[in-house]
């Protein structure tokens, strides 16, 4: 009898919630506890303590953080997915030269074989492999809209070798728009390599610019020893000596120093092809591996028809340890980077949300997967691993909500405490459910359609999952040893967590599944596709932007799309559409421009090692069917 009464009570609660509007949202907002600033303080204080030594992925401190998170999930009554809270994966912790490293520079006057360790050195973050092509100079290799700077503007570097300078414009000038003489993330080698890869480059050559050379000091190549935990770029990347730079630049009509002076003096980005200059680069590194872990727990949904669908809520727990190549600290001496805001604050938000949902009397319709990723600082390796090896089916994952640096809520120029939500263009429903301020009215939310580059929500977007990221924004302590607990706004973070809770709840209880759409700014601008015809057909493939060469790679296909009907699957590589060969996304869109809605053609794909021919009938982009 008591069981019947209990079920009846739940039914009446749900019914009352629907009558109030929005399923159980109104009831839950009243009944659920608020985020606790003291608990947030406790979590961040532990994770950012010297005891954990900066939580470098693969280190003992990171392992301690992972155990702490798992114990918190368990304490809140959340179960693991399967037998363990931990999802293990490998990362690189050390690299050394193997035998196959080579660099050849071909100028109008000569073909030059460079010597590894003397003329060039593979970067510790380089991917293995070979690339050959025309060389394109891309200034500092920076794309930074907030600084009105894009060295790739007007350049086509797809399949080519990018050459760029280290650091950033006016690096030693305290009045530089790039945070004065304090380096930003855009100065790091990892960011430059990622940016080159994102623009389609086949390889990256990088060197110290003439203005950064110190008179009387040798411009040493960066060694591979003692680099700490590493993330691997998707392209070969090497540093050039000044001798190699001279050979590369010898046919240009003005010295490199003049171009750098003009860029810095005018604060104007610049790039150009190096006429009749080609390079062939091969990187071959030995890699030492270690194991790190994502930490995950699940709160089952209560609706029988929706509980097998999942909302993923994420925040990475790793940071920079005693300093990695991503550190912006001044000086050479290693220092603990505590990462209080980046991203102990996000983990505090994740654990508070897990506790708030688990203690709520009204459970969500869909299931919620709470996951704290490792190795985000190495290039979102943990979230990328998860997407490739999901704990719950990706096809049943309806949305991803991420938190990265949510602890420094501070007033804007009008005195209003603010935070930001990025990526609202990944689904038409986001603007409907993401509020303009926190439920308690204390924090205003700036809603940004375009996603930020990188981060743990990026692999989910690539896989076709609507994804957003909450953040309180960057600051001068970013990636520095000064990112400490004393600067966290605990009350502001608690208010922001209330907004995140509201969004998660609305997604989990939304009557229909969100439809993914390509985020604003993720497709090539009109007119930059080499004169390709505009296409009106709809196929329903989701691009894999992590792999851009050798065909058009698919990360997923949309439910009910012509692609799904034809038998296309995530992981397929399209090699041909009809009579048109496909080597990259631009060939693919060019091919689509030759068809009309309702046309049928054959598509050749590579699935694993098997080449297959499938027949597809195109739908219309206008109605998406």
Summarize the structure in short.
The chain is α+β, with helices and mostly antiparallel strands and 625 residues long. It folds into 4 domains: 1-30; 32-90 and 288-509, 3-Layer(aba) Sandwich (Aminopeptidase); 100-283, Glucose Oxidase, domain 1, CATH 3.50.30; 537-620, Pdz3 Domain. Strand 2 and strand 3 form a beta hairpin.
Protein architecture, described:
This protein is of the alpha+beta class and 625 residues long. It has 4 domains: 1-30; 32-90 and 288-509, Aminopeptidase, CATH 3.40.630.10; 100-283, Glucose Oxidase, domain 1; 537-620, PDZ domain (Pdz3 Domain). The chain has 14 helices and 27 strands. The strands form 5 sheets. Strands 1, 12, 13, 14, 15, 16, 17, 18 and 19 form a 9-stranded mixed β-sheet that branches. Strands 3-2-11-5-8-9-10-4 form an 8-stranded mixed β-sheet. Strands 21, 22, 23, 24, 25 and 26 form a 6-stranded antiparallel β-sheet that branches. Helix 1 (2-20) packs across helix 2, helix 3 (37-47) crosses helix 12 and helix 8 (340-359) crosses helix 12 (490-509). The two termini are 50 Å apart. The model is unreliable at 1-29 and 521-535 (pLDDT under 50).
């Amino acid at each position: 009898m008591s069981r019947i009464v209990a079920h009846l009570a739940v039914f009446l609660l749900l019914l009352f919630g629907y009558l109030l509007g929005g399923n159980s949202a109104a009831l839950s907002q009243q009944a659920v506890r608020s985020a606790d600033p003291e608990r947030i303080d406790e979590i961040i204080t532990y994770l950012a303590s010297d005891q954990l030594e900066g939580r470098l992925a693969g280190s003992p401190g990171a392992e301690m953080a992972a155990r702490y998170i798992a114990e918190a999930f368990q304490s809140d009554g959340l179960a693991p997915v399967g037998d363990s809270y931990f999802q293990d994966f490998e990362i690189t912790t050390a690299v050394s030269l193997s035998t196959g490293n080579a660099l050849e520079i071909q100028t109008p006057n000569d073909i030059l074989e460079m010597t590894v360790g003397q003329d060039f050195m593979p970067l510790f973050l380089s991917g293995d492999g070979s690339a050959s092509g025309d060389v394109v100079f891309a200034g500092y290799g920076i794309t930074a809209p907030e600084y009105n700077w894009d060295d790739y503007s007007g350049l086509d570097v797809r399949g080519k070798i990018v050459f760029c300078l280290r650091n950033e414009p006016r690096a030693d000038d305290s009045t530089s728009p790039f945070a004065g003489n304090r380096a930003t993330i855009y100065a790091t080698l990892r960011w430059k390599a990622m940016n080159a890869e994102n623009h389609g480059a086949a390889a990256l050559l990088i060197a110290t610019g003439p203005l950064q050379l110190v008179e009387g000091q040798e411009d040493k190549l960066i060694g591979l020893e003692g680099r700490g935990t590493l993330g691997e770029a998707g392209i070969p990347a090497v540093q050039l000596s000044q001798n190699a730079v001279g050979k590369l630049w010898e046919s240009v009509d003005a010295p490199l120093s003049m171009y750098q002076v003009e860029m810095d003096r005018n604060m104007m980005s610049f790039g150009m092809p190096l006429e009749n200059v080609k390079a062939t680069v091969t990187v071959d590194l030995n890699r030492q591996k270690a194991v790190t872990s994502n930490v995950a727990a699940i709160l089952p949904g209560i609706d029988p028809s929706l509980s097998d669908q999942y909302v993923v809520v994420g925040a990475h727990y790793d940071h920079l340890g005693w300093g990695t190549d991503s550190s912006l600290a001044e000086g050479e001496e290693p220092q603990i980077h505590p990462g209080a805001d980046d991203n102990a604050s996000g983990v505090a938000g994740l654990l508070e949300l897990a506790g708030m949902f688990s203690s709520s009397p009204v459970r969500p319709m869909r299931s919620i997967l709470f996951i704290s990723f490792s190795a985000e600082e190495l290039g979102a390796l943990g979230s990328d691993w998860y997407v490739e090896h999901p704990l719950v089916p990706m096809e049943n994952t309806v949305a991803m909500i991420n938190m990265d640096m949510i602890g420094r809520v501070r007033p804007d120029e009008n005195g209003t405490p603010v935070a930001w939500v990025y990526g609202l263009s990944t689904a038409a429903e986001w603007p409907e459910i993401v509020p303009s301020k926190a439920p308690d009215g204390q924090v205003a939310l700036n809603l940004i359609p375009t996603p930020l580059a990188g981060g743990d929500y990026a692999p989910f977007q690539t896989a076709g999952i609507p994804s957003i990221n909450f953040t309180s924004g960057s600051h001068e302590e970013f990636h520095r040893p000064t990112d400490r607990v004393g600067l966290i706004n605990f009350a502001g973070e608690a208010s922001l967590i209330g907004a995140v809770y509201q969004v998660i709840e609305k997604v989990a209880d939304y009557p229909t599944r969100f439809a993914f759409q390509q985020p604003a700014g993720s497709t090539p601008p009109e007119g930059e596709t080499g004169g390709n015809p505009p296409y009106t057909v709809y196929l329903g493939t989701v691009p894999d932007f992590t792999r851009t060469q050798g065909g058009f790679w698919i990360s997923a296909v949309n439910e009910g799309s012509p692609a799904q009907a034809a038998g296309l699957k995530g992981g397929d590589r399209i090699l041909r559409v009809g009579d048109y060969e496909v080597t990259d996304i631009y060939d693919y869109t060019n091919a689509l421009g030759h068809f009309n809605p309702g046309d049928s053609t054959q598509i050749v794909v590579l699935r694993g090692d098997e080449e297959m021919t499938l027949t597809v009938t195109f739908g219309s982009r206008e109605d998406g069917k």
